[in-house]
Amino acid sequence: MQNFTKEKSHVTEGAKLYQGGEIMKLNLGSIGCGLSGLPGLLGTAFIVLRLCGVIDWSWLWVLAPLWIPAIIAGVIIVISVLVTEW
What we know:
By secondary structure, this protein is mainly alpha-helical. It has 2 domains: 1-31, no CATH class; 37-85. It contains 3 helices and 2 strands, in the order ββααα. Strands 1-2 form a two-stranded antiparallel ribbon. Helix 1 (37-51) runs antiparallel to helix 3. The longest helix has 22 residues, at 64-85. The chain is flat, with a radius of gyration of 21 Å.
């Protein structure tokens, strides 16, 4: 049987999991919030286009890729909390 000692690691570097005698590294770098993924890319593009005068949209719609996913996530969280309390 092997003895494992836990090493200190930063969250950005990942976390090491010890399971079945093997060391598995969990990459936490891909877990993001806010401006990650397609909404962040669209939001950044829309902001740049609005500031350059290419599009003449309201700021409400320019920032929509940033606030719509937040509202959807909030609704999902509220529904999951209500369902688990039943």
